[in-house]
Amino acid sequence: MSLQSLSNISSFAGMEFGIFKLKDGVSEIEMLKAADAADKNFLSKEDGFLGHAVLKGKDGLYVDLSFATTKEKAEEICGKWMNNKFTLQYIEFIEPGSIDMSFWEKIK
After folding, report:
1. What is the pLDDT of residue 52?
2. Domain holding 85: CATH number?
3. DSSP, residue by residue, 48-72
């Protein structure tokens, strides 16, 4: 994933930070394709959205990051995920119960 608007990233003041694991047998490549589709067809069209990234850690952990103009905007955008076919397709790759999601406000 890449940040949609690196020139505007300094204006971010809120973000969604979600740690998750993939379902057993799920392809990382397919999950990333679904994340790209969510970016292109939903996230990039949302007012206040600045960028999205998926990070890979150790022990099968991933992080989903969404940057927004405010913490409230990040929460608002994320609140729409369960009603969007592209984000629902992305969510299908995530192990139920593995997600630990939080929202953050930039203070410096």
Report:
1. 93
2. 3.30.70.100
3. TEEEEEEEE-STTEEEEEEEESSHH
